[in-house]
Design a protein that fits this description.
alpha+beta, 2 domains, 3-stranded antiparallel sheet, 3 helices, 5 strands, about 55% helix, elongated
């Protein structure tokens, strides 16, 4: 019997040997018995290998999910640290103006951002997500800037530090 039998090859070989036994009133030659035992053994080895592999892949999925969470937390930590440094530098750059350090520049950029009242749920300015509303701040900003009053929303002037 060849060693590179697939699981399906093993099953087919078992069926052939069993058919041979039925033709001979249940009798099998020594070589047929050996084929049957070898095929069943090989089939079990293949199944065991696949089950172990499935188990390993499930552990790999769990490890990947853990790593995703770990990297998300790391990213969040870095973002928080960066925002903290920018908050620290912002008043200095506001006072001094544009600063060039080597190939980098520190400058101020004025922008406007939408601030929503708690519980904002104006359907005209929200994307509907099952079970909740998601305010469309871009649409709200455009409306307010064009003179439309959006109840529960105001434009807030913001200043952020630009590092290039």
């Amino acid at each position: 019997m060849k060693n590179d039998l697939t699981l399906y090859d093993c099953d087919e070989l078992i069926k052939l040997v069993e058919e041979q036994a039925e033709k001979n009133e249940g009798e099998l030659s020594e070589s047929d018995w050996q084929l049957l035992v070898d095929a069943q053994t090989k089939s079990m080895e293949k199944l065991q290998g696949l089950v172990y592999y499935i188990s390993k892949m499930n552990r790999d999925i769990d490890n990947a999910e853990y790593e995703i969470e770990r990297v998300k937390k790391y990213k969040e930590t870095i973002i928080n640290r960066l925002e903290s440094i920018k908050r620290y530098l912002l008043p200095y750059v506001q006072e001094k103006g544009k600063i060039t350090i080597g190939t980098h520049q520190l400058s101020i950029r004025n922008s406007k951002g939408v601030v929503l009242a708690e519980g904002f749920n104006n359907r005209m300015y929200c994307r509907v997500i099952p079970e909740s509303l998601d305010p469309d701040k871009k649409k709200i900003k455009e409306s307010i800037e064009s003179g439309i009053e959006v109840q529960g929303a105001v434009l807030e002037k913001r200043v952020s530090l630009q590092v290039k």
